[in-house]
Amino acid sequence: MARVSVDSLRKTYDRGSIVAVDDLNLDIEDGEFITVVGPSGCGKTTTLRMLAGLEEPSGGTITIGDEDVTDVHAKNRDVAMVFQNYALYPHKTVFENMEFGLRMSTDFDESERERRVVEAAEMMGIADLLEDKPDELSGGQKQRVALGRAIVREPDLFLFDEPLSNLDASLRTEMRAEIQRIQDELGITAVYVTHDQEEAMTMGDRMVILNHGILQQTGPPTDVYENPVNRFVGGFVGSPSMNFVDVDVERTGDGIRLLGPGDRFQFDLSTAYVDRHAGELSADRYTLGIRPENVSVADGTADNTVRTTVEVVEPVGSDNYLHVDIAEDFIVRVESTITPETGEQVTLTFSESDLHLFDRDRGVDIF
Ligand code: ATP
């Protein structure tokens, strides 16, 4: 088990013209499960490969446990990595695949190797597959073998690079739970890279959000979901995405009215809200963010409402997504029993406590 510390970590390619990871600082607690998420090319894999020792940093340090491992070769780090494509040897049996890493070291005699492989295979539910070759296995079974091979090493740190991307939806759900169970049982510190924000939300004790190689935010998934520090995080975390409306501020005596483009959106902030945020509400314009699940179709009693036109009704099982004419891609998530016609007018309402106001120029959350 180990604490991991990443200080000012940087990786550039092509003589510095590509900055893959930019001044990353991150402390990971002993036994913590961290998910790393972000759009394609944001530096997730590069970060993971530097932790594994497969990529040399251009700057900064990595400490695992008490040891500065920045210049330590991959094979001398107590780290096990699980890849998306399983990376199994096709001509070796499951047993041989799982045993292979242990054979590379003189620390394990035959009986110790066998003990570890059998124990890991039992843990992964693949004890009856030990004599099979990889091409006799399903995708889910192959990934269990890859996990088992990581476990036998009893590493200080588990690194996962999108391990479930090749599996179908139901297997992914099953394997997510399995990986969490194993990590929990073994208490090994884990860093799990995924492009799937739902995976990042459900699996991690803490999530790390990267964009353009820069750390945007880190925190428990619920905190990040509720308090995104900027527009990028607000839009990236949550599905369907947070809605955004560019609003201008109209000051009316004590009050503040937020006006969207083309008179399609108007919302009065309460005086209590304005008083509470008096110091921060100084700009003349913001980008307002509101999540689809925080908007509802108003009953007759709501007083601060927005009237709009339904453009598309998208059924997604238990819910309907109403695409409405407030702003581009503005979605309202409602129960499937609410089924307005396309072109119908609806009255929407939401609580001001669910609003996010972002600095329109810098995209940074105001509060
Ligand atoms: P994905 O989700 O698509 O796997 P990622 O977040 O893992 O993306 P990285 O693979 O870490 O992103 O890449 C980060 C940036 O570094 C990208 O711009 C990528 O093109 C660049 N990059 C990665 N490896 C190299 C390399 N060997 N040579 C040049 N540029 C590279």
From TrEMBL:
Alphabetic keyword roster: ATP-binding, Cell membrane, Membrane, Nucleotide-binding, Translocase, Transport
One cellular component term from this protein's GO annotations in UniProt: ATP-binding cassette (ABC) transporter complex, substrate-binding subunit-containing
Reactions catalysed: D-xylose(out) + ATP + H2O = D-xylose(in) + ADP + phosphate + H(+); L-arabinose(out) + ATP + H2O = L-arabinose(in) + ADP + phosphate + H(+)
Primary enzyme class: translocase
UniProt keyword ATP-binding, yes or no: yes
Membrane topology: Peripheral membrane protein
GO biological process: carbohydrate transport
Known EC number: 7.5.2.13
Cellular location(s): Cell membrane
SUPFAM superfamilies to which the protein is assigned, alphabetical: MOP-like (SSF50331), P-loop containing nucleoside triphosphate hydrolases (SSF52540)
One term of GO molecular function: ABC-type transporter activity
Entry annotated with the keyword Calcium: no
ABC transporter domain residues: 4-237
Function: Part of the ABC transporter complex XacGHIJK involved in the uptake of xylose and arabinose. Responsible for energy coupling to the transport system.
Subunit structure comment from the entry: The complex is composed of two ATP-binding proteins (XacJ and XacK), two transmembrane proteins (XacH and XacI) and a solute-binding protein (XacG).
Family label: Belongs to the ABC transporter superfamily. Carbohydrate uptake transporter-1 (CUT1) (TC 3.A.1.1) family.
Name assigned to this protein: ABC-type D-xylose/L-arabinose transporter
Species: Natronorubrum tibetense GA33
